[in-house]
């Protein structure tokens, strides 16, 4: 990772680190970021073409009294006519990743932006990986604005703002709501259909935003949840049985991919079988604990899905966690599989680095892709747009943002809860605005936000049949960053065309 730079930006002093270690600038100088830069470009997939304006710049985030909270970096792609004018009837989609602590580079240059880094199966990308027009870009359906959360990318907090005010579930959503409204005002796009597109923690952000924007008089047309996590209990409370149930089908998909299980079975059918086993057999067995008299019988079934020995599963009393699976499924080859996408693998760590915390933080999928994505984004901004940001771009600032994140949430109807289930926010937003449509996309190989979890969380909201019809489900054969797989990206492109066309 590039070391912190002390360079000056646009004539201003370098950002000063606040007590919590976050990059900030004094409120009176926060506007002294680089001037925005725009280029007129053309996207084509060989059959269609779209002229568009690509703009890099910052959006002010201000509170109700007008005080500056910070500046949120954005990369926007807006279709224009021959005279350079946008079409206000086109949708505008605000897109972002999660973390907490991730910039929007992956979903932009890895996924749905008009230019995409060419992937190479599940192999690590070279620094000079080519950038090409993305044949399945969301620009074909909507103008797209990619936003970097405050504290990530080139987004900045004002100096006098306590990071705790923003680096929390509700404060983060509030900041994004303000940035979205500011962009719509500055761009004159309040008459456009409005969409949100969030990935990972971005789906928690989406869930709160769906409700929050509605409460502020901003009506959404649609929301896309990619690699969704709604109930934070399995994520934040180790040992919860819901964790093992949700993780099991994804680990089964990985075992099949590595040839350890599921030979000769269609991948989707295998995943469906694993889902049924997890919910019909594993979940009741875990609930009964040592009162279960058939532990070996269940262990035999679980082992057959995970590609592990029955004795190994029994030694865990049916509770095989992801770290256990990652370090054992390919142990005979001396390799460890990924978390964001279990198909990605790397050599196992040195024995002196074999602590659980160390291995849990390492991820082959992250290593394989993020460096090339960030480098391509910086080249695009500098070489194509003529935009020169600070020397350091915080593509991943988990250590400063995520590790100190306040997960508590003012849950509708419940008050403040420490580990929220924001499916409640989604259900409330849909009840309040039944014209809003919701797309949920997930990958079979995503062990960061497993598919079973979001299916279970949404089913627990008991939506009416009319509201259920507003929800579209799309499962793809990829991982957390579902777009890294060419076939999955093509499927996503077709799915998004269907979703955006839906009335």
Q: Sheet with the most strands?
A: 12 strands, mixed
Distance between the termini: 45 Å
> Which class best fits the helix and strand makeup?
alpha/beta
Shape: globular
- State the helix count: 15
Query: Any idea what the radius of gyration is?
Result: 23 Å
**How many β-strand stretches?**
18
Low-confidence stretches are 1-31
Rounded average pLDDT: 89
Helix content: 25-40%
**Strand content bin:** 15-25%
Organism: Candidatus Olsenella pullistercoris
Pfam families: Peptidase_S10
GO biological process, one term: proteolysis
Protein name: Peptidase S10
Summarize the structure in short:
This protein is of the alpha/beta class.
Q: Can you put this structure into words, describing what you see?
A:
35% of the residues lie in helices and 19% in strands. With 503 residues, the protein is α/β, with parallel strands linked by helices. The strands form 4 sheets. Strands 1, 2, 3, 4, 5, 6, 9, 10, 11, 12, 17 and 18 form a 12-stranded mixed sheet that branches. A two-stranded antiparallel sheet has the order 7-8. Strands 13-14 form a two-stranded antiparallel sheet. Helix 1 packs across helix 11 and helix 3 runs parallel beside helix 12.
């Amino acid at each position: 990772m590039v070391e912190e730079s002390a360079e000056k930006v646009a004539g201003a002093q370098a950002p000063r680190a606040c007590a919590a270690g976050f990059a900030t600038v004094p409120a009176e100088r926060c506007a002294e970021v680089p001037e925005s830069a725009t280029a007129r470009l053309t996207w084509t997939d060989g059959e269609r073409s779209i002229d568009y304006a690509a703009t890099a710049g910052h959006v002010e985030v201000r509170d109700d009294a007008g005080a500056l909270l910070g500046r949120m970096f954005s990369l926007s792609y807006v279709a224009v006519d021959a005279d350079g004018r946008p079409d206000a009837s086109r949708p505008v989609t605000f897109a972002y990743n999660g973390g907490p602590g991730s910039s929007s580079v992956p979903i932009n240059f890895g996924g749905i932006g008009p230019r995409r880094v060419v992937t190479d199966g599940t192999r690590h990308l070279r620094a000079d990986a080519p950038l090409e027009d993305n044949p399945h870009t969301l620009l074909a359906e909507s103008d797209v604005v990619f936003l970097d959360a405050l504290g990530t990318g080139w987004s900045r907090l004002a100096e006098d703002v306590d990071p705790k005010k923003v680096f929390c579930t509700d404060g983060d959503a509030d900041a994004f709501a303000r940035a979205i409204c500011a962009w719509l005002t500055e761009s004159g796009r309040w008459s456009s259909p409005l969409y949100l597109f969030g990935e990972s923690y971005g789906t928690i952000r989406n869930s709160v935003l769906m409700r929050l924007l509605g409460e502020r008089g901003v009506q959404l047309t649609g929301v896309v949840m990619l690699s969704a996590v709604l109930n934070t209990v399995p994520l934040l409370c180790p040992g919860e049985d819901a964790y093992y149930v949700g993780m099991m089908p994804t680990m089964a998909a990985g075992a099949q991919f590595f040839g350890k299980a599921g030979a000769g079975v269609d991948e989707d059918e295998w995943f469906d079988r694993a889902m049924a086993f997890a919910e019909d057999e594993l979940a009741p067995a875990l609930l009964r604990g040592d009162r279960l008299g058939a532990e070996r019988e269940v262990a035999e079934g679980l082992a057959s899905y995970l590609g592990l020995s029955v004795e190994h599963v029994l030694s865990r009393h049916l509770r095989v966690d992801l770290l256990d699976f990652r370090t054992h499924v390919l142990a005979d080859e001396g390799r460890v599989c990924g978390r964001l996408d279990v198909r990605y693998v790397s050599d196992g760590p040195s024995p002196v680095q074999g602590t659980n915390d160390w291995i849990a933080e390492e991820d082959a999928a992250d290593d394989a892709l993020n460096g090339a994505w960030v480098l391509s984004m910086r080249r695009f901004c500098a070489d194509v747009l003529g935009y020169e940001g600070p020397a350091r771009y915080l593509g991943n600032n988990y250590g400063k943002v995520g590790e100190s994140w306040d997960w508590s949430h003012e849950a509708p109807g419940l008050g403040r809860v420490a580990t929220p289930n924001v499916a409640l926010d989604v259900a409330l937003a849909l009840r309040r605005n039944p014209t809003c449509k919701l797309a949920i996309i997930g990958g079979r190989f995503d062990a960061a936000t497993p598919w079973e979890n979001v299916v279970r969380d949404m089913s627990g909201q008991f939506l009416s049949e009319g509201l259920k019809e507003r929800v579209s489900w799309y499962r793809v054969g990829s991982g957390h960053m579902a777009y890294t797989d060419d076939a999955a990206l093509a499927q996503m492109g077709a799915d998004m065309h269907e979703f955006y066309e839906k009335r």
